[in-house]
Fold each of these.
Amino acid sequence: MAPSWQAEAQATLFGGIKGEELEKLLVCMDSTRKKYRRQEMILSEEEIPDRIGIVLEGSVIAEKDCEICWMHIGKVLSVCPAACPCHQQMLRNLVTSLAGKNVAFSEKITCLSRRSTREKLLSYLSETAKKEKKRHFVIPFNRQELADYLCVDRSAMSAELSKLRREGVLDYKRSEFWLL
């Protein structure tokens, strides 16, 4: 029985590629699936991979059970002899995804280059407001995750948020923020 490629179809890399085309593409890419248990090593620093991995379920570092689709790097990065449209679509999706990650890393570097916790917070929150095109928005982090993202101490960040609220700069409730 042929494997079901339902999980792969949900991956951004395969956007716009459906059904039989996706199956053919994954066979062409010499794809394999592997499940990993919680805390299991997915790839060590010493390993030089010849495959690219796409997390289908779970998260990397195997914080919980996960499943990864492995594809041969050479086959992903070169156009197959058949020059199939689905392979070209996948390459476009890959470039779009990498460009998006590059923008996100640049934004993070801008925030992290600030000296104080206050400056990092204001940089992140104002950039988020600008992206959302509104002064009221929800961030995708809880307090600890935001502190980790900004590379600051959580209690110092919480104290700075309280100070900004008292000063009338912003208001917040959990992950919801209002820039005043």
Amino acid sequence: MIASMPFVLAQAAAPQGPNSLLTFAPLLVLFVVFYFVMIRPQMKKQKETRAMLSALARGDEVVTSGGVAGKIEEVGDSFTTLEIAPSVKIRVQKGAISQVLPKGTLKNS
């Protein structure tokens, strides 16, 4: 019995492995920071864009992603007709509209 005693003490004094929570804590903190810095603002911007596109109406003045400014003549599900000059109309995809201008902006330019 005395011969097995030092072995038992050696096992009790053996170092334990690192805590798994402390091992993954930096990765977890990095993910939380990444979410609040990149993912959340992008989702907010997408939500605002969807709301802007669904609120388009005839007579709104808009700018497309290609830089073409015009007045909305007709709004469809996927496409919108813009009047870019007197009696010059083009059809663009709704997703190509990047900005709604204040009323009267195109007349002043």
Amino acid sequence: MNTVKRRWVPYFFLSPYLIFYFAFGFIPILFSLYISLTNWDGISGKTFVGFDNYKFLFNPDSYFFKSVGNTMLFVALTLPLQIIIGLGIATLLYSKWVKWKAFFQLINFLPYIVTPVAVGLMFNLLFDWQAGFVNKLLLQLGLIDEGIYWLGDPFYARMVIVLMLSWKGFGYTMIFYLAGLANIPKDLNEAAEVDGATFLQTFWSITLPLLKPVTLFIVITGIIGGLQLLEEPMLLLGGAGMGSSTAVIGGPDRCCLTTVWNMYDTAYGSTTRYGLGAAIAYGLCLIIAVFSFLGARFQRGEQG
């Protein structure tokens, strides 16, 4: 086999992936970019409007910046809780005092692999103001006199979503922290114990600094993943025919409208504005790209 043929061998084996990527990835990306420059309802002809859709994102009626603010709020409130809970459970499971570690790791990781649809519907049932378990429990304990409309109040609705996302995501951080703890040399902790350091001193001076790369990775992926939040709040506030479902998209005063939910409702909801929906998607893509770039730069700076 000559040199020219050898050069083409890798591309031959990569060709199935490349063909599928161009057909179902690259070409749709270019098509959606073109759609974002048009006014199209999916049925009638496309009307080229240039950057009007992108200009409309700055209009309050687009709810773009409101949805971005809601999404960033959820990330800012949820990610620290996931890190703290995940690190605490990982530290406890990695210690020598806990038995059946594999069983407890599985139990704590199960919420993360539950489908978002199931999570949203489950919390919808728990916090339903008419027949929800939470209200019934609080009434039985005498802590409240009447059921709280959890998903009808902006503050309560946001707190329920933060609780839901924290419960679902802490298993993800736990797994990474367990892997990070396993890579810390045990000699360091043993030397600290010999020198008379307490558990807290060892944790703050040795464990946390050595887990910094893991924490940085979790923060970066958590922000990127959080910006794509959709199914959980949609199913939670959309309900399953329950009394807690809300008529307004995004909950009361659109307090829980995420960016992807806004894009989905704009493109496939009652208005069916594919062009504006595509513009929202590219606006979100730009925000994610900025955070990815900053995260990569910061990570390289830490490694350097």
Amino acid sequence: MDCLFCKIRDGQIPSKKVYEDDDVLAFHDISPAAPVHILVIPKKHIASMKDASGEDWALIGSIHKAAQHIAREQGIEESGYRLVNNCGPDSGQLVYHIHYHLLGGKNLGPLVALH
């Protein structure tokens, strides 16, 4: 498999990690769209939200729980943050491993372009 995020998960590609547990990994985006821009991924490879099923739903919940924790640790929980999942080519999904963009640290307005 030639998945960028699996390579990051496996330590083949370096990242600036901010969170890790048995199921979830989070690291800084290399092209941030906000002062805080962290990618939150499941360690299990699931290509896209449309591919999630069965026990994956508990994993998706774990991702959201981790995102809440990270927002608190990054000091953006109170001021607000955005948690975005792109699903499929029309959404702009470029890496086919489920991931969430956790963005904050400034007023993001109604929209922000993500990759």
